[in-house]
Amino acid sequence: LAIESELRKAFGTDQFRLYYQPQVIYGSQKILGAEALLRWHHPRRGVIAPATFIDVLEQSSLIFDAGRWILNKACQCIAGLLADQLIDPETFCLSVNISPRQFRHSTFVDDVMGAIHQHAIPTRCLSLEITEGIVIENISDTIDKMNELRSHGVHFSIDDFGTGYSSLSYLKRLPVDLLKIDQSFVRDSTNNVNDAEIIRAIIAIASSLHMDLIAEGVETREQLNFLHAQGCNQFQGYLFSPPIDEHSFRTLLLTGG
Ligand code: G
Ligand code: G
Ligand code: MN
Ligand code: NA
């Protein structure tokens, strides 16, 4: 497969980059965290988003090296931001997307803790985004791994919440700190009553399970105001910033958004 061998090469040659999309709190310019998102700077095809290659990584053993590279890069970024006092170690959290095979690999817990220790960052500054798919595939293994990482202080969020099939009885057994409202619900929340109701339901679930909540894919003021009126206070989306490279993210932190 041509793309697979190109991906194999991309690692050794600095073609992978992590971008950072800020997460903000309602009514302030304060950046409380960010989501790390992988980009491929292809020598001929330019910047490629992961939608076109993440499945290729996931279906080959490349996902294991890629996963470790992503965790290391994210921790290195946190260490640099801390060293330059651009973030508050007590509040800032960088979230990293974890793929199902990466999570299930026997070295996963060691990979995460290894990256944290290598860069000597506070464990609480790293959050792992998992999907409902990971949860339902092997519930007891998932809970064990999450609890082990949680005992070290690593945070968890459920990505794309509402699009999978996780039952609420599973959800309450998981050490999850944050639910991310999927952008598909946010997109139509201001003109589709069903999506608006789903958002209200997700907010009620988060509240009753004592989990934090963030809305993804917020693009308009109307969406922002609707979500805030329903009780959501944390946001991520193009309205605030697209995913940006590390240099731009640092500039944003320096200038206060
Ligand atoms: O940034 P963008 O919208 O192009 O990301 C598309 C999808 O790729 C996201 O839904 C996300 O789940 C996935 N993705 C992005 N970065 C990473 C990453 O670092 N690791 C994994 N496993 N998935 C990622
Ligand atoms: O991991 P996850 O599936 O949540 O990835 C989020 C994806 O959504 C990334 O690919 C990111 O680039 C993209 N994204 C972030 N903000 C917005 C937004 O406001 N609108 C849209 N359409 N996509 C967004
Ligand atoms: Mn995500
Ligand atoms: Na999402």
Automatic annotation (TrEMBL):
Coiled coil: none
Domain EAL, first and last residues per copy: 1-257
Superkingdom as given in the UniProt entry: Bacteria
Name of this chain's protein: Histidine kinase
Residues of the full protein shown: 817 to 1073 of 1078
